[in-house]
Design goal:
By secondary structure, the chain is mainly beta. The chain has 1 helix and 7 strands, in the order βββββββα.
Length: 118
């Protein structure tokens, strides 16, 4: 359940988490203070950029309150930026995913390296 990722430690105030789950590179971003139309997710070369901007007009109609953030995440080597997808949960957690290349998957397990005797 992705809600617990952001409620475990409120003192940390982390807005995002990055990890690998089942051969997929995942970025989780807490965007609960933003509406879907206030979010922009894009890839630039091997970087994923998340931008959010929320504007509110004060009740007197004369002033604005703006809240925004920009975050960039570098994709692991070999991950194709064209394969990046995103999903937004009802709890306000944005999940950005990309499948890892087969090369990275097998290297995670490890490869024995023979010792050469000299």
């Amino acid at each position: 359940d992705d809600r617990t990722l952001f409620t475990i430690d409120k003192t940390q105030n982390d807005i995002s988490q990055v990890g690998i789950v089942d051969d997929t590179y995942k970025i989780l971003v807490n965007v609960q203070n933003y509406k879907p139309e206030e979010l922009v997710i894009k890839t630039v070369n091997n970087t994923v950029k998340v931008e959010a901007k929320h504007e509110e007009k004060a009740s007197n109609g004369h002033s604005y309150s703006t809240q925004s953030f920009n975050q960039s995440f570098t994709l692991p080597a070999g991950v194709d930026p064209e394969t990046v997808s995103s999903a937004l949960s009802k709890q306000g957690v944005l999940t950005i995913s990309a499948p890892l290349p087969k090369v990275l998957k097998s290297s995670e397990v490890g490869r024995p390296i023979p010792i050469k005797h000299m």
